[in-house]
Specification:
With 721 residues, this protein is of the alpha/beta class. Helix 6 packs across helix 7 (140-152) and helix 7 (140-152) packs parallel to helix 9 (190-202). The model is unreliable at 654-664 (pLDDT under 50).
């Protein structure tokens, strides 16, 4: 048996206090890089070795299979024996285990089937069809999100308040019919697994009593990410006597959009009696300058329990700020700095580029390729491999070359135009018999009246649309063509109907494709051989898509969204696009709760860095085909100036304007770019630029709700926030 002395020798003071606690309930606030998994693993070992708790009494819950496997393996390694008897797993795996063991009590057949997301989507489409509802009005993806959200909140269809309007009544009806289908077929979706497990225990007192008697020690990882039904499941198993230890970080709660509720960790002491709180503030990852920056930013959030990260490491390098002239300058700077790091002997996999929005990867990818730097888009696809981008490009390829069968196949029924498999097969068979392209076969089918009247009308409209794109647009001016394709094909509306977070990402990517088309310049070589700009663009896209992003054995730079970066760490981090409206995101700037989550996301980004952090912004950026002035993110100004080295740009002081011969004597010297101000009509905003002098001074302000305004300083009466 592992000795308690040997167990504790590897822990710091705060970790030891949490591991050895005798409190009934424990809240462990584990800051980034402070060893939360270590505390959970050693806590389990302490319960077994020091308190004599049976392994059968331990239930440990986490969110990913990877985290569960790591916890299980580390416990086994620490104890020097298999972690048998303990239930260590994800919420879903534990729920599945309980439902399998007690399928009769849960009202399920023995061989019930788990529905993945796509299976669930198809069943919802079937239900909508059975109810003779129009998919264009009752969008399957949105309905799927509605059902899962309700289940995550522990709400059945018959428990939803019906306000009598068509929208709520129909959604309730779809939800109920969907549940009926699942019940008849013995089908369980992922959200249902947790809801049904909770109801299994709640509705079977003897069974609940059994498991409350068994699991005397319940441990929960990443508690800040729990949704309503997960939190309720823990409370139910805890009962009045069991000990609960939750480990998490309120400052890293960034998943509200998928049901996580920060109130669960903030209000833990209000729900459970006799709670002892522990703070893990010693960070083993980052230099102190990085930690001081993270602390300074997150302190601006009101909704937090509070802690300060620190490290025994050195102060480290100052944080590097780069104010770019544009997003092109920004991405070029990042690629050049990464090239310098790699040339100095740093492996690419030691470097990460983090961004708020998926669409930001395009220019970064382009510049990394120019510098021959291997890279990988972590947890996602490269820009030109994304579905919405490939859909638009398939239309454009067909406009450029009617005999592009691959492009034709992709978009003949995308968005859906009511063509079934039978119609598509008729066109394929015609192409095969006549040895022609699918486009030519389609025209043969129309002319020979092979297709049904409905299908013929639909495909004729498709043919006319493609021809009109070709006739109406100059192939040297790409932006109007791409814009017309996105709008007239219905692709923008098609993606708008997806769940909000996914729809936003896809629409931002479409806008970025328009930027790519607007700014594309064909090479001299392509011009010399007579290629149109359109043909040159498509060729360049194909070459970029064909380029290796990285070989498996080649250390490569990691590109990822900030949400994907949680739980990871890198010696060198580039946090890009720190501008008002981009990060914090425009959709969050008017909502105090959402703005605080954006700040937590920034905190996550900063604390990914171990040795060096670069933070960049652009003073102008193309958005939906228009170049707009950008104000530096408020998060930049929240980092103390003494922690920062400004490579280019200065958000802390006003650059001396050539029109201000004596800035200090100006009656408006208190105003400078980057300062947050408030206007009685336009509300809060950030100063972008000053011009003129004396009574003729003008101030450009990016207001959160009213966009960019140029105001006369003398009359604006701006208050500094």
């Amino acid at each position: 048996m592992l000795s308690t002395h040997k167990l504790l020798i590897n822990l710091n003071e705060a970790q030891t206090a949490a591991v050895t606690t005798d409190a009934q309930h424990s809240l462990v606030l584990a800051g980034a890089g402070s060893g939360k998994t270590r505390v959970l693993v050693y806590r389990i070992a302490w319960l077994l070795a020091a308190e004599g708790v049976s392994p059968y009494s331990i239930l440990a819950l986490t969110f990913t299979n990877k985290a569960a496997a790591e916890m299980r393996n580390r416990v086994a390694e620490l104890l020097d024996k298999p972690a048998n008897g303990m239930w260590i797993g994800t919420f879903h795996s534990i729920a599945l285990r309980l439902l399998t063991m007690h399928h009769k009590e849960a009202g399920l057949p023995k061989n019930f089937q788990i529905l993945d997301s796509e299976d669930q989507y198809r069943l919802i489409r079937r239900v909508i069809s059975d109810l003779e509802l129009d998919e264009k009005q009752w969008i399957p993806r949105s309905v799927q999100g509605f059902i899962n959200d309700k289940k995550n909140d522990g709400i059945r269809a018959n428990e939803i308040e019906d306000f009598g309007d068509d929208n709520s009544s129909t959604l309730i009806q779809i939800y109920q019919h969907y549940d009926d289908h699942c019940l008849r077929g013995g089908l369980v979706d992922f959200a249902e697994m947790l809801l049904r497990t909770h109801q299994l225990l709640l509705n079977n007192p003897p069974l609940l009593e059994h498991y409350q008697g068994r699991f005397g020690a319940i441990l929960v990882d990443e508690f800040q990410d729990t949704n309503e039904i997960q939190s309720a499941f823990i409370r139910l198993l805890a009962g009045a006597k069991n000990r609960v230890m939750v480990v998490g970080d309120d400052d890293q709660s960034i998943y509200a959009w998928r049901g996580a509720k920060i109130d669960h960790i903030i209000g833990f002491k209000d729900v459970y009696a006799n709670v002892t709180q522990y703070k893990l503030e010693q960070n083993y990852r980052s230099t102190n300058n990085i930690l001081k920056a993270a602390n300074a930013v997150i302190k601006n959030n009101a909704k937090r329990l509070g802690k300060d990260l620190w490290s025994e490491q050195s102060e480290g390098e100052p944080i590097q700020y780069y104010g770019a002239y544009s997003e092109y300058d920004e991405s070029a700077f990042v690629a050049e700095e990464i090239e310098k790091l790699i040339d100095s002997g740093i492996d690419g996999d030691q470097i990460a580029i983090l961004y708020r929005s998926n669409m930001q990867s395009r220019l970064l990818e382009e510049n990394l390729l120019k510098h021959n730097i291997d890279y990988k888009v972590y947890g996602g696809l490269r820009f030109f491999e994304r579905m919405e981008i490939k859909d638009v490009l398939a239309y454009v390829r067909l406009i450029n070359n009617r005999h592009d069968d691959v492009g034709f196949e992709r978009i003949i029924n995308t968005p859906t135009r009511g063509l079934g498999a039978k119609t598509i097969n008729q066109i394929r068979n015609c192409a095969q018999i006549n040895q022609v392209s699918l486009w030519d076969a389609l025209n043969i089918c129309i002319n020979n009246k092979v297709l049904s009247a409905r299908a013929s009308t639909s495909v004729a409209a498709f043919v006319n649309m493609i021809d009109e794109f070709d006739y109406n647009h100059d192939k040297e001016d790409l932006n109007p063509l791409f814009d017309d394709v996105i709008e007239r094909t219905g692709l923008r509306d098609h993606y708008q109907k997806e769940p909000p977070e996914k729809a936003l990402t896809r629409l931002e990517n479409l806008d970025e494709l328009l930027n790519a088309a607007e700014t594309f310049v064909k090479s001299e070589e392509d011009d010399q051989i007579g290629m149109t700009a359109l043909a040159s663009f498509l060729a360049q896209v194909s070459l970029e898509a064909g380029e290796r992003s990285s070989d498996k054995d080649v250390p490569c730079v990691q590109l990822m969204t900030l949400h994907s970066a949680k739980g990871l760490e890198f010696p060198y981090v580039f946090l890009v696009g720190l501008e008002q409206g981009l990060f914090p995101h425009q959709n969050s700037m008017e909502d105090p709760e959402k703005l605080q989550e954006e700040r937590r996301l920034c905190y996550v980004g900063i604390t990914r860095a171990e040795k060096q952090l670069f933070m960049t912004y652009a003073t102008s950026r193309r958005i939906r085909g228009r170049t707009q002035g950008c104000a530096p993110s408020r998060f930049l100004r929240e980092v103390p100036q003494d922690l920062v080295h400004q490579i280019q740009g200065n958000i802390f002081t006003t650059p001396r304007n050539t029109m201000f011969s004596n800035q200090e004597s100006s009656p408006f010297a208190q105003y400078s770019p980057g300062i947050l101000v408030s206007h009685k009509i336009f509300g809060e905003g950030t100063i972008i630029e000053l011009s003129g002098q004396g009574d003729y001074t003008q101030i450009m302000v990016e207001f959160q709700q009213h966009g960019t305004k140029i105001l006369a300083a003398k009359f604006a009466k701006l208050d500094i926030v």
